[in-house]
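#onboarding

Welcome to the new folks! Below is a worked example of what a typical request in this channel looks like: someone posts a single protein sequence, and someone else replies with the predicted structure as tokens. Don't worry about understanding the tokens yet, we'll cover that in week two.

Example request:
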Amino acid sequence: MHLKSTATASRLRAGYGCEDVAPGGFVSLMDLYEHNYMRLRRLIPDVAVLPENAVSDVPGCLSLFADVIDHTDFTTTLRLTYHFHEDDSVVLEPDITLRIYHDAHQAEVLTGHLKHGRLHYDHIPEETMAIKWKLNRFLYKWLGFCLHLGHTFTATADRPMPEHSVDELLREEK
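Example response:
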């Protein structure tokens, strides 16, 4: 019995801190989407004026990149990531694509690439509640961390939003 609980504890500590949350039902997942939306609104107060490619720079921290993939009246799909220079390439980590539902006040992770590309969650089936929980719980924690560091995507007179994308940086590296 002790060996089983030790193995479980090791697995819980193995990831980004998201494994300790048991996937709940649909209602609690929707609650998590709502909390992600609230944190995103603090990070990006006015998504309607967010440039297609934006960077949040905080001294002493990694730059946080936000690329708008699609924007409609009711939704915005965007990509959030850091970039790391390794050898002669740029590694995007984490690389999260999410959709913001403006009318429902929710934000949902659509795809996620974590742990230096070892975990790729693309085209997540609707019924895969455990993966949705893991990715959205990660987003919740990561947004909290970004906000704690002082990241924000707001334009001010003395701090206009830079307009370069992760894709442009990747092309420059080649």
